[in-house]
Amino acid sequence: MPTTITIESPRQPEVTELLRLSDDYAQSLYPPESNFMLGVDELEQPGVAVYVARDAKAKALGIAALVGGAVTGADAAELKRMFVHPDARGHGVAGHLLAGIETDAAAHGIREIVLETGPESHAALSFYRGAGYREVPLFGQYVGEAFSVCFAKTLPGPAQ
User: Fold this and answer.
1) Is the Cα dihedral 38, 142, 116, 83 positive or negative?
2) Global pTM?
3) What pLDDT sits at residue 5?
4) How far apart are CA 101 and CA 124, in angstroms?
């Protein structure tokens, strides 16, 4: 499934629908206090980039956000809101989306991507491990959370 990855506004119908589906999925697995979803207003803040994967007909297939990094002067950024529409799963959309984000992040001086997911999100856990992410101790707002699993991946530095 050919896809393009672009940074877009989260405030558009297809993207807000993906966010809603993502919320519904997370709420089906975890208690409300253990969901750390960023809403549209938070996704529009400075230092947040929302990536959208679209098919050849420009249909939104998946989303993810990168928070922090070069915009804030840090060399690490957090991956948030990674979600692929159920109809698009199994076609490499998540891998393409993540690879595009990692390439863009590295080009902007980000040296590490960190993320949080949950222990019941079996597909996500397998996906991140397969993409080279390593499990790390809980960080930031996730410290002490029974329903959090954190990962990190070091990105390649600039070519020598």
Assistant:
1) negative
2) 0.92
3) 95
4) 16
